[in-house]
Amino acid sequence: MKNLRVLAVAAMLGLGPVAVAQKIETPLSYYLPAEASYNSNIPTPKDILGYNVGEWHASHDQLVMFMREMASLSDRISLTEYGRTHENRPLYLLTITSPKNHQNIEQLKKQHVQLTNPAESGKLNLKDMPAVVWMGYSVHGNEPSGSNASLLAVYHLAAAQGPEIEKLLEETIILLDPSINPDGMNRFASWVNSHRSKNLITDNNSAEFDEAWPRGRTNHYWFDLNRDWLPLQHPESRGRLAKFHEWKPNVLTDHHEMGTNATFFFQPGIPSRNNPLTPESNFKLTQKIGTYHAKALDKIGSFYYTEESYDDFYYGKGSTYPDVNGAVGILFEQASSRGHAQESVNGVLTFPFTIRNQFTTTLSTLEAAQAMREELLAHQRDFYKNSLNEAKKAKTKAYVFGSEMDKARAYHLAEIIRQHQIEVYRPKESFKVDNVTYTPENAYIIPTEQPQHRLIEAMFEKRTTFQDSLFYDISAWTFPLAFDLEHAALSSRNFKSGQLGQKVDSLAFPEGEVVGGKSDYAYTFEWHGYYAPRALNQLMDRGIVTRVATDKFSTADGKQYDYGTILIPVTGQNINADELHQLLQEVAQKNALKVYAMNTGFTPQGIKLGSPMMRSLEQPRVMMLMGDGVNSYDAGEAWHLMDDRFGMRPVLIKTNDFNRADLSKYNVLVMAEGSYSNISKEKLRSWVQQGGTVIGMGGAAKWLADNGIGNIKFKEVKPDTAAQKPYADIANSEGAQVIGGAIFETTLDLTHPLAYGYTDKKLPIFRSNTLFMERSKSPYANPVMYTSNPLMAGYISSPNLQKVKNTAAVDVSTLGAGKVIAMPDNPNFRAFWYGTNKLFLNSIFFGQIISGSSARADEDAH
């Protein structure tokens, strides 16, 4: 405490960092409740870690060591591994309750889950049921006060003694996730610990507070895991959600950090930004729980605020997902020291202080949950009863989706939906809606009359009207649009329960096959399948010669082959006909494709297999820029897609290394959203002119345009200065012009190489910026265009809606022998935008074959 006071006094006196260069030695008494007593047989965090909590940033392996030790020593704690990260770090969930409850834990779990079943919940006696509280710490790895507070929380719950703790553990079951993002946590802890001086430096210019790109916020592939509760694209999220639904908690806490100059925030957030699918009772419960946080923070003298800044609209966040599952999600945001001690407008902010606030609100949450136990249990029971009643009255009785040409995309959406404990069925027999036929083999039906009715609506609705015009996150995430699947909302007029066929209790990846047996001539497969690019890449990895059809053709059996069909000749390969047949069987099965054996090149209609319009393909040798200036989210999404999902080998090159790199090794350059001021535009221009393909997305497309690399033009967006406005409205007025994330309709030129594999001219695209790309004067340079009535779901201001109409979504320019492909939007958004992944992959695989005369010539710009 003495050294903390030294820091605080020094800050008040305005003394510099040298004057406050002290070592933080914070005793447990700084954190723990003064009235509590502790079992001396339970080791303290210092006994295990070798240092006081807050003196160093705990690494993930140290956190794991501590949690394992606590579980082995305390009969109040059990430990379960629920998954592994991309870097193979274990993800743990601790179950903390009384020894008596542990002996009966499976029965208690089963009984608690019955609360969410309206057919059974009315029989339950709430007076005797424990509340279930989930504590989630530091989903963002560089917001470490949460995970470090979990050390104190577990110690307190394991070692505290007396009737109060005994009663708490008897009446609550606590599920504690000490580190939601181990990879990011370790990256950050390594940085700040390795840059920590023996005598603490609080000057915010210190390198300790400026971690290296991509920083520790994100997971291995640079994803924000706090946006993945709905999409479930990462092992951390999938494992966590399985445990969430195994227990169905009543309260879930989500411990975060914010800017250093802030104080402490707890929910509720801004009331007008609640998702309308969340019942009002949830907001009232959140307010009531907030009174416990306020009382606890008042007691230790910490400042805080609530009902400002943050919202509960997007259900893909940890603090909001519980709200649509009968629970109460609570966001905590602590001002971040971003190291061990840093100057702020409120004085020197120390790491121990940030940890204490997180630990204090951990205890206040448990106090609230215990005091409001029956109220929270009743809310959960009533939530699901009311949801089912709403479903019975709703106009939409079911949703159907599927794809005749691409079973894999439909499979992956069904896979996500099943993980949310939503019932999925196959149609009993084929039926038609809006001229689309849905079959038992290709489609799935989601009846809305089930307890998860509200979550189903959240995943399928196309909302375009909102109470508020500001959003903390995206305003639309309609899943069938994200997957670009044929879909329909079914009313009582075109849906009866008798249409439900087999219930999908388990999903099998769609089968692939070689049709027609072994060929001594050639094989083909169409580009419609989601994993067709992966299949092509696997063949290229084996050195297999491939070609692509730039026009249609048909065979004697009447089979029609579309633009983008891949041709694999049997002769001229580095393996014999038998080996090629075996390889294609493996590739077809792994990628859910039908590969067709061809016995002649003489096709009755369209191009022949030996036509010059069967273009030879060169394997993409991809480099992607990363590092300073690059948006790590967008870059990570592209990296994840190529590496994890499609088995490619992109070489990640730092922007600082680009100017000295040997670019002749590569034929494709990926530039994600960002600013690239530190790379040589002359070197890039020369590389493209020699035949390279550069793909610029978002701000990278704008950078290419600004630097004359490709003939790309953007609309100039001028601020509105027409009228005087109140200063108090500045945040709302400017925020309303932000496109935080909405879905728009575009049209495709299905004959263009970048549109190969698509069968519908309409394509939903996700947009989250205000970059509006002008239409080219060339009639061939824009294979994807926004329509004249583009808004499909989400929020956009009227002025911005007018600006986006009829603009280009993709522009292709020639530059010498190379191509410049510009996309103002991100086709790989959060890894679940399956519908536009093919635009990005086509740019990689087919950019090389785009005719120079079909693109906008660079010379037009000079």
UniProtKB/TrEMBL annotation:
Listed cofactors: Zn(2+)
Alphabetic keyword roster: Hydrolase, Metalloprotease, Protease, Signal, Zinc
Keyword Zinc: yes
Signal peptide limits: 1-21
InterPro entries named in the record: Class_I_gatase-like, Peptidase_M14
Active-site residues, record numbering mapped to chain: E333 (proton donor/acceptor)
Database matches in SMART domains: Zn_pept
Domain (Peptidase M14) ranges: 56-355
CDD domains, A to Z: M14-like
Family the entry assigns: Belongs to the peptidase M14 family.
Protein name: M14 family metallopeptidase
Organism (species): Pontibacter anaerobius
